[in-house]
Amino acid sequence: MARSNQKLAFALLFFTFFIWGSIYVTGKMISDDVPASLVACLRCVTAMIPLYFMSRKHLKTKIDRKDWKYFFLVGALGYFLTVQMIQLGIALTGASMAALINAMTPVAVTILAAIILKEKITPVKCLCLVLALAGTIVITSGASTQGETMGIAVVLVGVVSFAAASVYMRRLTAKYPAVLVTTYSMAISLIFHIPVGIVTVCTRPVTITPLGVAIILYLGFAGSGVAQYTWTKCLSMLPASTCSLFYPLQPAFAALLGAWLLGETFTPAFFIGLMLISLDVVLNTWEARQMDKALTAKESSNA
Known about the structure:
Elements: H1 3-29, H2 36-55, H3 68-92, H4 95-102, H5 105-116, H6 123-141, H7 146-173, H8 178-203, H9 210-237, H10 240-244, H11 249-262, H12 268-302
Helix pairs in contact: 1-4, 1-9, 1-11, 2-3, 2-8, 2-9, 3-4, 3-7, 3-8, 4-7, 4-11, 5-6, 5-7, 6-12
Domain EamA: 11-140, 150-283
Pfam families: EamA
Family: Belongs to the EamA transporter family.
């Protein structure tokens, strides 16, 4: 890869994780006015606008009938359950805490890929699992209220559901453009989001303000639209293992923005958890890169 393209990819990764980190903070800003389930619904409805325009040239791609069940699973798990759990977790706990727990996603993907796809479980993967569990235990021990502990548990459900969806997403992106997989899966998620959103409006108090509208548009367009495109672009320019190295930036940006905009404070447990989870992601990514190098060397020797 040309050095200029590599610099562009790194810049896009910083931008992507800044946007994703900011989602937690902006979501927390309206959590008192708009219920989490409605925020999740409106975020995904709004995201369909940029996703449609980004995927237009691929919409005529023929989808194998047997693959629709995987689109359904990705939509139900990755874009409905995950988004609902993340938004609820943000409302229950701090933006920084939710972002930190969500940073374990790459490790959860690795573990579930081993279970679902029967990929080999290595000693490093076992160590990563131990670090992830240790980080979660430390963070949970630092929770100051029962609601905060519940928020951490809810975000963990979101992490596992997105990791499961990502495993099926691997199968789909091997055959179809990533942006098309995202668009169809997001559209399928609306089958669940819209009824939940309607019930929420009918049963829960909702306060709509200009700031709330602006944040929901930001969550949809920037968080699920622009950031999704830049992430896909980065994956086309750099190995996935390299891109995953930047995942700890998400809670770091969320912590900085949370302290600045929300006045959030952090306990020693938060910083210890941040170090454990960051080491977890780095180790997981390092092993993936080593395996990629070994596979490339093997293919070269067989050529």
